[in-house]
Amino acid sequence: MTDATRDAGADATIRACLSLDRPRSFFLFAGAGSGKTRSLKDALEGLDTQTLTTLRKHSRKIAVITYTNAAADEITRRVKADPVFQVQTIHSFAWSLIEGRTADIRRWLETDLQTEIVKIQADHEKGRGRGDAHDKRVKKMASKTKRLERLAEIRAFTYAPVGDNFGRDALQHTEVIDLAAHFLTESETFQNIVLARYPFILIDESQDTMKPLMEALLTFEARHRGRIALGLLGDTMQRIYTDGLRDLDQRVGDFAQPAKQMNHRSRARIVDLANAIRRDDDGRQQRAREDKPGGTVRVFLAPSEGTDRAAFEAYTRAEMARITGDPAWQNAEAIKTLTIERHMAAARLSFSELFEPLSKPDKLKDGFRDGSLPAMRLFTHRVLPLVTAQKNGDAFAAMAVLRDGSPLVDKRGIRAGRGGQATGLEAARAGVAALMTLFKDERDPSCAEVLAVVAEHRLFPIPDQLRTCLPDDSPVAQNMADILAELGPLFDGLDLTTPEAIPPTETTFTEAWMQALVAPFSQVARYLAYVEDRSPYGTHQGVKGLEFPRVMVIADDYQTRFNGLASYETLFGVKPLGPTAQKKADNGEETTIERTRRLLYVTCTRAEESLALVLYSEAPDTIRRFLISNGWMAEDEIVMAVADGTYQEAALQR
Fold first, then answer.
1. Annotated binding site
2. Residues 347, 356: contact at Cβ < 8 Å?
3. Would you list which residues are annotated within the binding site for ATP?
4. When comparing pLDDT for 160 and 446, which is higher?
């Protein structure tokens, strides 16, 4: 048996489960770097011709649910876009199940909204009569009541799996998941439709599939066992979201449970550390490839207070270059630096002013964090490419941007300008000239200044969320009738001339955008590089499934905002569990220690060749003793800053 064939039995088990005559559900355990997604692709490519022919004959499909759109695109490519494979993300899949069921959705929403309103009213009666909490409850109750009253007017519900959903007829992400879960467990007709459509439902990264839908799928599978195969692929140690099913591996007792032993990604020393991290969790261990011995792991410890973090991290890179003999460690761009939170990456990449306001509102943060927020794309996919092309003197690229998104240079705009005064092309040139004036003499204008010029010259359409942020004297802001026409049914019948008339949720969005627009425009490029994973920084959420030759993990509770959801100081024994957390632990509930251990496992296992852990702590020596006594690190693998933080001059104690 070789490293390449050691896990062949697991793949054979999966292929046997995907039988139309005797479908069997399975849970594939596959740790970091084990080739889990490859097993999924091989299983799909290995389906025999007879199975595929039968599926096409009866108009049936194989549902393949992936964690990201990028993963969905890759699997679609591997199966040559064969329509028998329905490859989607979990939100897209859930929407495909319920789309068009308008009456059923309306009934569910009526019940759900009524329940929520009653709950808010109860909380309101218990709460104080004044303050932010009081005001939020009032706004929330008014918003839900209005939505309930208007449900009967909706002819069809809409939903965008990628991005944010606004308007009376739009469903939210959580609602789509909850609706699909409800119908899977409560509607026999719906269940029969799903059974007729799919003989197999395969879910990659199943440990992070939203708990309501995963529980519904497990219930659905148990009721119809032998008629459908639910294939789950994943690793509970790599669950990074709290809404995943914590005990998934304990809920699949009747499933086939193939397991993969190999880690094909990392060198032996990194695999050893990963095994040590999870030893006290589920005890599962991996094997490193024989042709990947060695590898380097180092921990760099420094006090949380009084440490110049930029200098200490620069020292870490230099020291890793010396230890590994790999000069690429000296180049920050050649290293993947992982933080526990996005805002820490934003701070180190210098786009915090843009990031902080837009990462908070519930209906903005998801789209903003993954780069799909429509209003943000005005800056990232319209203005930024235009400004970049102009600065580079690339008139062809600038015109391509305008042709792609500006109404001034569409066919009608080029033939005749507004009011016959100038052609659209002339107006576009004037608008571009005005825009570039903002950047004259290396000036870095605010996003608000850029927005005002774009709106004044109508270079690009202004997204709904940004219209209320325009100056009162701007042409767009003055033309309220135009705004009402473009905003559509969300503000139908409302007087938008006063802020009080705008729905409470829109006021919140406006406040967030007004704060974000103060940011210098240069932060847009840094933000875009981050969300497109072109920057040297990332978070545990964004790198799952990815791998890098050199990884630096930064653990810094002092700068974290997780508020107890994760704490490296607690994991390493510097701080005890608080009373509430200890009570949860006593009741068998998940603790801060478990969550932090998982985050550490996910980040450390991204490394292929070498790994540096940079830990800031109020008690570095306590962490040092923990790492050594638990067998995570050898004594000579830990580098500690001197007590007063003057490591730049005094060097470090080894």
1. 30-37
2. no
3. 30-37
4. 446
